[in-house]
Amino acid sequence: MSGLILVAYATRYGSTQEVAEAVTATLRESGLEVDIQPIRKVRSLTGYKVIVLGAAIYYGLWHKDAVNFLTKNESALTQRPVAVFALGPNSTDENERQGCQAQLDKELAKFPWLKPVVTELFGGRYPSKLRFPDSMVAALPASPMHGKPASDARDWIAIRAWASNLAINLQPALL
Ligand SMILES: Cc1cc2nc3c(=O)[nH]c(=O)nc-3n(C[C@H](O)[C@H](O)[C@H](O)COP(=O)(O)O)c2cc1C
Fold first, then answer.
1. Which atom of ligand 1 is found nearest the CA of 126?
2. What residue spans define the domains of the chain?
3. 24 alpha carbon to ligand 1 midpoint, in Å?
């Protein structure tokens, strides 16, 4: 099997990086050659046959590094398969999940040329300590983040299963 995959991720608090690392490890266990990088450090997509793009949602918007990456790389990304994952819901509540899915769908709709081979929304981790400016927003009593406890809704079995399926689905593109 030949053909390099790039897993590019955008994170504020580290949980998306950990998911990207688990996806990378699973793809490698399936025999695939994989590089992993924070999206903002990706300089060129030359040499990569497939891109896996992962980023979290904040205030209804996808991480700005992911949005910038899509904006800058339209031409390269239309020439190769792209798989997308996002982190959002901080619980397993179905209503919350649907709300986050709608946010992600809205963000992706801004890039009508993007036709991901697969798109997945994973549960996220809400951090125990927020940094500025998030800490300032959460301090407002009217904010939905006010007093919100730390949580971790990442389902590692589902994440690894998604990556295993991805490895199978990508095989034709990597030949
Ligand atoms: C300040 C803040 C705002 C958030 N806003 C949203 C949101 O609007 N929609 C959503 O689905 N998830 C939201 N989340 C949940 C994050 O997407 C989730 O916690 C994710 O795992 C964070 O990723 P990171 O650790 O890579 O930064 C928010 C989290 C934080 C900390």
1. 19
2. 4-174
3. 21
Output the pLDDT for position 174: 87
- pLDDT 10s digits, 38-85: 999 999 999 999 999 999 999 999 999 999 999 999 999 999 999 999
Name all contacts of 103-108 with Cβ < 8 Å and 24+ positions apart: 103/57, 103/60, 103/61, 104/57, 104/62, 106/60, 107/57, 107/61, 107/62, 107/67, 108/62, 108/84
Residue nearest to ligand 1 atom 12, measured at CA: 88
pLDDT tens digits for range 123-153:
999 999 999 999 999 999 999 999 999 999 9
Distance CA 65, CA 89 (A): 20
**Is-above-0.85 flag for pTM?**
yes
Closest-lying ligand 1 atom to the alpha carbon of residue 55: 26
CATH class of 4-174: alpha beta
- Across-strand partners of 37? 8
The per-residue DSSP string of 28-43 comes to HHTT-EEEEEEGGG--
- The pocket around ligand 1, CB under 6 angstroms, is made up of 11-16, 56-60, 87-90, 100, 103, 124-127, 130, 134
